[in-house]
Amino acid sequence: MKNETYIIHLNEKYKEKSGELFIHIKTIEDFYIFLDENGIENEQDITQKVAISYIVQKREQYENINEIIGILTDYAFFIQNEILATEMVLLNDAWNVMNRMSELTKKHDLEVWRQVYEGVVMPKIGSTLDEMSNFSREIEKKMLAVVPREQYEHIMCKNAHSWEPEWDGDWRKRFLEMKSVDRFIDSLNNEIIKSVEESCTKNELCFTQRVDDEAVEYARSNPIYTRIGNKIHSKKIPFMINNYLRATDVKMKRYYYCHCAWTKNSILQATGAVSHSFCHCSLGFDKKPFDVAFGQAISGRVIYTVKDENCLACTFEFEIPEKIMEQFT
């Protein structure tokens, strides 16, 4: 099997970078061989099992498995394969998150780090989602044996994505130009809605899935951010919108909703989901636009997430500083 159109795409994309072109073509040709060996004759027939099997095989052979994941991510979006795109995006986004979590814990409290992370062998790049969920559960267990839950959540909210506030960033500039919390919130919501609309119109993947008019209507009717007095509520859009809307099983709806590669498979595991304390990482991620816009780190809390049994959405709450309320609402 060989996708000549994709090879042409690579030649055009890397025509002045022969080294990168060679690596990309070699990786894709190796993947084609793997697909042929597994009886996959059509790119759209790639299964989750095949995608995972390939990565597990390659992580044992190559130290640069993250480069292979990146190449396959590009390939998956080019051929618009939802299954392969989902697996690669989750692995690509998550591959170094746990290391950053360890670094943040060490920075926050050296003694806590020693009791939780010292000597721990981190998951290999390219670990499966089940392996990552199992590791996350063990880290949470060790963390809660060392510190109170409130302190654990504070550490997580420092954010494993390592996003430090950039007080002069684009969000800050936009907010100061708008001079309104509500207008700033509307602009953030409109960005998401526009992204879903364009994905639908162009028949492109949104996150990792094709979306239709039903998904667009969901995005329009369910804004990410809303202001209630001096609080901002953040409600994530499902990671796989159409799957979420069409699923009838509660557990599967929770799974399709979740964005976190490190814990989403725990929802489906017999041992149960990792607690929503872990979701303070996502809380830190979602409040970043407001940290930047307001020029200060604001406080927030997790109200509930899909890690809570029978809960079908993730909702966070941020507090608008008093001076911002006085000047910009």
Describe, in short, the structure shown.
By secondary structure, the chain is of the alpha+beta class. The chain has helices spanning 4-13, 18-37, 48-59, 65-79, 82-94, 97-108, 110-116, 129-146, 149-157, 170-178, 181-202, 213-221, 241-246, 250-257, 280-294, 322-328; strands at residues 205-206, 209-210, 225-228, 231-235, 300-304, 315-319.
Question: What is the strand and helix layout of this fold?
Answer:
Layout: H1 4-13, H2 18-37, H3 48-59, H4 65-79, H5 82-94, H6 97-108, H7 110-116, H8 129-146, H9 149-157, H10 170-178, H11 181-202, E1 205-206, E2 209-210, H12 213-221, E3 225-228, E4 231-235, H13 241-246, H14 250-257, H15 280-294, E5 300-304, E6 315-319, H16 322-328
Antiparallel strand pairs: 1-2, 3-4, 4-6, 5-6
Helix pairs in contact: 4-5, 6-7, 9-15, 10-15, 11-12
Describe the 3D structure.
The chain has a four-stranded antiparallel beta sheet. It has a two-stranded antiparallel ribbon with strand order 1-2. Helix 9 (149-157) crosses helix 15 and helix 11 (181-202) runs antiparallel to helix 12. The model has no long low-confidence stretch (mean pLDDT 89). Helices cover 58% and strands 7% of the residues. It folds into three domains: 4-93; 97-157, no CATH class; 170-328, no CATH class. The protein has 329 residues and is α+β, with helices and mostly antiparallel strands.
